[in-house]
Design brief:
heterotrimer; A alpha/beta; B alpha/beta; C mainly alpha; A: six-stranded mixed sheet; four-stranded antiparallel sheet; 10 strands; C: 14 helices; elongated
């Protein structure tokens, strides 16, 4: 592997250190200008006439042992970002540095060696498990792929099932015999099989009922504490995000519009979109009804194949002025309130409690 | 844009008014190769004019099947309404002929579904479909119908309603389609408006818009609204009264304030303690252990007992099906030990680190 | 955590009935959650309703298939026919060239067990049909196996790799599909001579794989996007592993169903060839050949055509019914909970 120096980031760690667990708080993932465009083709000659700009220059960092959340509404590119990081999709441009090594530039062979450090848990517990394979084999598969199964793999599968709260005796059952919450535990056990350092959690609880969702959230918290895992948590549910995250990146139409600690984003949001999002979340307290200001956005999210010029949020923004149409606002800390925000007119405003 | 001031308590006069819709002892079953699914097992609740009744429950709780039974839209077979009465203004809908029932649907009782894309016909313009809904139940000309549709579309906040009339469903966004569905539902001034997970398929900013429109539709028609959702946040924002369902039965009813701040059933408390909050940091969620019950083979006694902390190890809970204990006007709980709920709430609060009972606002 | 005050009626731990079943086994390690053991206890008079009957895929499949009465009947019928055909020497009342001089040109009768009658030479047609069925089945099985192998492989490769590989393979399949099968078979037969069932089978197989290839390609294209396939890729699985372990087993349904269709079609096609005199060589009596032989005396001895003809139809129909049953039983949308 060729060593690439990462701008503004750490030096690539030596290869023999790659699979050694990073110290808590040490940066392990740096996404830099990640871009993914899906070509639009059509016509007689199948010519490309445009592109869906699903992800357009996303940058963020994740440290060992912390949870960074990507939030946004459907079509904002949060899931695509996650899939580009694990190279289920090949990024159009940009870099993904894992401990200083650029995953985006790796060949598929090199990438295979890195995969065991970054695993992914999918949203739909019904679609993400092969219905024809029993649970033991599902969890064992990553170990078999890396030739680790012979060496105590059977015990490891049992241990993993216990860790995620499943009865190891049920290992010979098939996915359809389990409920949604249990299936999600199986998916998590599979992701943990190779002892990864980073988990990409792609809406892991949004298909589950509330009571089951809480079980899985608690499990994720416990696993993080026990194994020092880093999470990239992709979600649209702001309540869950608040509960699980250390830092939060808010996405809109392929851009990160605001990035800060959980407290900064929820208590002191500065980007109008973040503010609108937070004010739209229903509170589970009927006594708060009508007591907070609700920012109701007009219209719908524009198409990512033809995003607005300048600031992409300007078509729905009550603060928009001429500059917003001409100049893309940079994701920077504009007036020293502590976290970057991509708005020309960023200003802190507490909205969640009104 | 601020929300309208809303009632937190039930609207005045609800307690002594006559119910518009009264579901009594409804039993709906489905036959499957593995046995009979008891989807709705003796459900009773009432809806009063001008109120929003929230029905909460997780998947398989029977909340949707109940209202599908009200509309008699249960596929038969395999489904069957085995028992009960559904009284709309004193008439039992279950006794009506199919022809009479069709006159009720879309006129007296209207429904808004979760997925507006599948409930609109893709080859007809949205306006035509709305006009048809009006023409079926009213003897007016097409021009008059068109005028009325444009009015309705404006009312639900569809911009350029006159041009939008001729557009097809795929030219509407998800939020706009749901607005159109609300417009269609209120077209005939229904007495009962049923909204089944109306915002589940929508993003949160769009959800806020649609909920506001739903509120407006209720005020416009003075209908009784049944709002079915698994989202407690939506209930907290919208409902006046709440019915909590579990395993095909009603386990608790009360005003929205009572349900959220002094739940009298351990399942309701379990839902509240499972739910992370957007406005407060919680230390730790307290989930309900185990899995939802099988509706083919419901647990004996209280169907919640295998997952209940309060009932753990108690003989009564395992053998006796708890009745809905009346705790006050419009307040009931199906828990043998509802008197112990206060301690239970304190126990949960000490783990979540947030107050459920809270201070009186 | 403050425990609520416990009233007297709460029984002691050992009195608590042991809960059984999958749901109860879900150990939630949570502060406020409860631990539930999965010891299977003696049946108590109350239960928690979480007992789940564990059923494997195979059991589910069997249950659904067995409920399909027509398919079950057809299956039984085919089983008997096959067993009889491959044990013809023991089952058939006469040898296939054995002559009963006393009873020539006899219509079906129980006398001497000439159930399907005899021809002008006095050969027993029931026995000849049994032997003929063996030949027809041999050909059909060869066709089914070879065409399934080719179709599955090419379809899988095309669907998995997409792009130019897909384009080339599928255009090739189109080419085969537009070739008039019968004409090619006639030419082949003329060049390579007729005779062994094997050779005929291979030729039919080489021309009948494209339909399956298209089906498998379609299934692979959709499976490719399935999350469990993505999950395998994310776990580092290679192409072969993904194809063989994750995609192929989930394609077995369509493949099996298609195989039955090919079987039935091959039997009919072989009969057609034999009828045209280009099938398996005499004196081995293939079913088509029997019909061909009976053609000349059709007006006087109707049974010489009708009996082997009915046999062909019955076998082809039965195979199709089994295919129907398989399709229903393998349809994941009929999955029971």
């Amino acid at each position: 592997m060729t060593a690439v120096s990462t701008p503004g980031g750490m030096q690539p760690v030596p290869e023999d250190q790659l699979h050694v667990r990073a110290q808590i708080g040490e940066e392990i993932l740096r996404v830099d200008g990640l871009t993914k465009h899906f070509p639009l083709r059509g016509g007689v000659f199948n010519r490309q006439y445009g592109a869906v700009r699903a992800v357009d220059g996303v940058s963020l960092t994740i440290n060992a042992g912390e949870t960074v959340s990507l939030v946004g509404e459907s079509g904002c590119g949060k899931s695509t970002t996650g899939r580009c990081i694990v190279r289920l999709l090949d990024p159009t441009a940009g870099h993904v540095y894992f401990k200083g090594h650029d995953l985006a530039q790796m060949s598929h062979r090199q990438m295979r060696q890195m995969r065991r450090e970054i695993q992914i848990v999918f949203q739909d517990p019904y679609a993400s498990l092969n219905p024809r394979i029993n649970v033991n084999e599902i969890i064992a598969e990553p170990m078999r792929i890396y030739g680790r199964y012979k060496d105590g793999g059977k015990e490891r599968v049992k241990e993993l099932m216990r860790i995620v709260g499943l009865n190891p005796e049920h290992g010979n059952r098939f996915p359809h015999e389990f409920s949604g919450g249990q299936r999600q535990r199986i998916g998590i056990a599979r992701a943990l099989a190779l002892n990864p350092q980073l988990l990409i959690l792609d809406e892991p609880v949004s298909a589950l009922d509330v009571s089951i969702q809480a079980q899985v959230i608690n499990l994720l918290e416990d696993l993080q504490n026990e194994f020092g895992l880093a999470y990239l948590f992709i979600a649209h549910d702001l309540s869950v995000v608040r509960h699980l995250s250390d830092r939060v990146a808010v996405m809109y139409l392929g851009h990160v519009v605001e990035f800060g600690t959980k407290h900064e984003i929820f208590e002191n949001p500065t980007h109008p979109y973040t503010q609108a999002l937070l004010s739209a979340v229903p509170l589970t307290d009927p006594r708060m009804r009508g007591k907070r200001e609700r920012i109701v956005l007009e219209g719908d999210v524009p198409s990512p194949s033809n995003p607005p010029s300048g600031c992409r949020f300007r078509t729905r923004c009550w603060k928009a002025e001429d500059i917003c149409a001409t100049e893309v606002p940079e994701l920077i800390d504009r007036f020293g309130h502590g976290h970057p925000s991509a708005c020309h007119f960023a200003e802190p405003k507490a909205v969640i409690r009104g | 844009m601020g929300a309208e001031p809303q009632f937190v308590d039930a609207p005045t006069g609800v307690a002594d008014a006559e119910p518009l819709l009264s579901i009594r002892d409804l039993v709906t079953e489905f036959k499957t190769p593995d046995g009979i699914v008891h989807a709705v097992d003796g459900v009773s609740y009432e809806v009063f004019p001008g109120e929003t009744l929230g029905v909460v429950g997780e998947s398989g709780s029977g909340k949707s099947v109940t209202v599908m039974s009200v509309l008699r839209l249960i596929p038969q077979p395999p489904g069957r309404i085995a028992n009960g009465q559904i009284l709309l203004d004193g008439t039992d809908l279950l006794q009506l002929s199919d022809a009479d029932m069709r006159k009720v649907r879309g006129k007296d009782v209207a429904m808004i579904f979760q997925d507006p894309m599948t409930s609109l016909n893709p080859v007809l313009s949205v306006g035509d479909q709305l006009a048809e809904a009006i023409l079926v139940h009213n003897d007016i000309g097409e021009d008059a119908a068109r005028k009325r549709v444009v009015e309705l579309l404006e009312l639900v906040g569809v911009p350029n309603a006159d041009q939008r009339f001729d557009q097809y469903p795929h030219e509407y966004s998800g939020g706009m389609r749901q607005r159109a569905m609300i417009a269609m539902a209120m077209a005939n001034q229904p007495k009962i408006l049923i909204a089944d997970e109306p915002t589940t398929a929508l993003d949160v900013t769009i959800q806020a818009q649609v909920l506001e429109v739903l509120q407006r539709a209720k005020q416009e028609t003075n209908a009784g609204v049944i709002l079915i959702t698994h989202d407690l946040g939506v209930i907290a924002e919208m409902a006046d009264r709440v019915v909590v369902m579990y395993g095909g039965r009603v386990v608790e009813t009360g005003t929205v304030d009572e349900i959220f701040h002094s739940p009298k059933h351990p399942y309701t408390l379990g839902l509240l303690s499972s739910l992370p909050r957007p406005d407060v940091d919680m230390e730790r969620l307290v989930p309900i252990p185990g899995q939802p019950p099988s509706l083919i083979n419901l647990p004996s006694g209280c169907s919640f007992h295998p997952r209940c902390h309060l009932g753990e190890g108690r003989q009564t809970c395992r053998t006796e099906i708890p009745p809905l204990f009346e705790l006050g006007p419009m307040r009931a709980s199906a828990c043998h030990f509802h008197e112990e709920m206060e301690d239970e709430i304190h126990r949960v609060e000490s783990t979540t680190g947030t107050a459920i009972e809270g201070d009186e606002a | 955590m403050s425990e609520p005050s416990q009233p007297d009626e709460r029984p002691k731990a050992q009195d608590v009935p042991v809960r059984t079943g999958l749901g109860g086994a879900d150990i939630v390690t949570d502060d406020a959650g409860l631990h539930r053991a999965d010891d299977s206890g003696e049946a108590p008079e109350y239960h928690d309703g979480t007992q789940i009957v564990a059923r494997s895929q195979w059991q589910l499949f069997r249950r659904r298939f067995f409920r399909h009465k027509l398919a079950m009947g057809s299956m039984l019928f085919l089983l008997i026919i096959t067993l009889a055909a491959f044990n013809a020497e023991r089952v058939a009342p006469y040898g296939f060239n054995e002559i009963d001089v006393v009873m020539r040109s006899t219509p079906p009768t129980f006398e001497g067990w000439h159930l399907f009658g005899t021809d002008q030479l006095g050969r027993d047609y029931f026995s000849r049909v049994i032997y003929g069925t063996r030949v027809s089945l041999q050909v059909a099985v060869v066709v089914a196996i070879i065409s399934t192998l080719i179709g599955t492989t090419l379809g899988a490769v095309a669907g998995y790799y997409r792009g130019w590989v897909d384009a080339i393979l599928m255009r090739f399949a189109d080419l085969i599909i537009i070739v008039p099968l019968l004409a090619v078979l006639l030419i082949f037969a003329a060049f390579f001579g007729q005779g062994q069932p094997m050779r005929i089978g291979v030729i039919i197989a080489l021309l009948s794989w494209p339909s399956l290839a298209r089906i498998v390609r379609g299934v692979f294209l959709s499976l490719r996007e399935k999350e469990y396939v993505q999950a395998a890729r994310a776990a580092g699985a290679g192409d072969l592993r993904i194809m063989f372990r994750h995609m192929l087993p989930n394609t077995m349904g369509p493949i099996l169903v298609n195989m039955t269709l090919v079987l039935a079609a091959a039997i009919l096609l072989e009969a057609t060839l034999a009828f045209l005199g280009l099938g398996v060589n005499p004196p081995t009596p293939a079913l088509g050949l029997l019909i061909n032989a009976g053609r000349s005396s059709m007006l006087t001895s109707w049974w010489l055509i009708i009996m082997p003809g009915l046999t062909i139809v019955a076998i082809a129909l039965a195979i199709n019914f089994v295919g129907d049953g398989l399709r229903d039983a393998l349809d994941p949308t009929q999955q029971e909970k």
